[in-house]
Design goal:
This protein is α/β, with parallel strands linked by helices and 213 residues long. The protein has two domains: 144 residues, P-loop containing nucleotide triphosphate hydrolases (Rossmann fold, 3-Layer(aba) Sandwich), CATH 3.40.50; 57 residues, Wheat Germ Agglutinin (Isolectin 2), domain 1, CATH 3.30.60. The chain has six helices and twelve strands. The protein has a six-stranded parallel beta sheet with strand order 5-2-6-7-1-8, sandwiched between helices. Strands 3-4 form a two-stranded antiparallel ribbon. A hairpin with a 6-residue loop joins strand 9 and strand 10. Helix 3 packs parallel to helix 4. Bound molecules: zinc ion (ZN).
Length: 213
């Protein structure tokens, strides 16, 4: 059920999580929900982490080029200040924020706002990708989307990395990952493949990753 149509919840805020693998349509689903809120003349603010520079600096862009204006922030705490007048707060690429995002979302919901976070729930090794699992625990509504396995066509829950490296995140989704089901997913594969040029360090720090590009 669409959470925002529940009349009984109109006086308090809540948290919705849209999670899944790469290419599962998370951003498209976030944009769909935000557009519907806009049509209802609700005040909508959309945020994305400053590290996600794949396509555009001031728009949330999904892989199918569905675009919505957004604000880039360097930390989750900035969202509190910038979202003060919003009824609905959308946050894309939630996995790029640190665990402060959990408290930020809870505070926004306590203030009466509808908070929608889209993000990867697992990394390229199939490990839970914080802070999305923590957000799923405190959210009122969790939507888990699936892509289609590019090997066998089953529902895909994993993101298979197609290049080598032990960084947790490599930007540039299209050439770097493909969706795989549990049977076809093999994280050990990623160690036997050609290295990306930007893949010289072992850090999991997003900022250092960006600086190296
Ligand atoms: Zn498969």
């Amino acid at each position: 059920m669409e959470p925002h149509v529940l009349r009984s919840m109109r006086t308090s805020g809540w948290i919705e999580i849209v999670c899944g693998s790469m290419f599962s349509g998370k951003t498209e689903e976030l944009i769909r929900r935000l557009k519907r809120a806009k049509i209802a003349r609700q005040s909508v603010e959309i945020f994305k982490p400053g590290v996600d520079t794949r396509f555009s600096d001031d728009e949330v862009v999904s892989h199918d080029a569905n675009v919505i204006q957004s604000t880039s922030v360097s930390s989750a705490s900035q969202i509190i200040l910038l979202a003060s007048n919003a009824d609905v707060v959308g946050i894309d690429e939630g996995q790029f924020f640190d665990n402060d995002l959990v408290d930020v979302c809870r505070e926004l919901a306590t203030l009466g706002k509808r908070v929608i976070v889209a993000g990867l729930d697992q990394d390229y090794l199939g490990r839970p990708f914080e802070p999305i699992p923590q957000l799923m625990a405190v959210a009122e509504f969790v939507t888990k989307l699936h892509a289609i396995c590019m090997v066998c066509g089953a529902p895909a829950n994993h993101s298979q990395r197609l290049t080598a490296g032990d960084q947790r995140v490599i930007l540039g989704a299209t050439e770097t990952y493909e969706p795989r089901c549990r049977d076809c997913f093999d994280p050990s594969d990623s160690h036997d493949l050609p290295k990306l040029e930007s893949d010289g360090s072992t850090t999991e720090s997003i900022n250092q990753l960006i600086d190296s590009k």
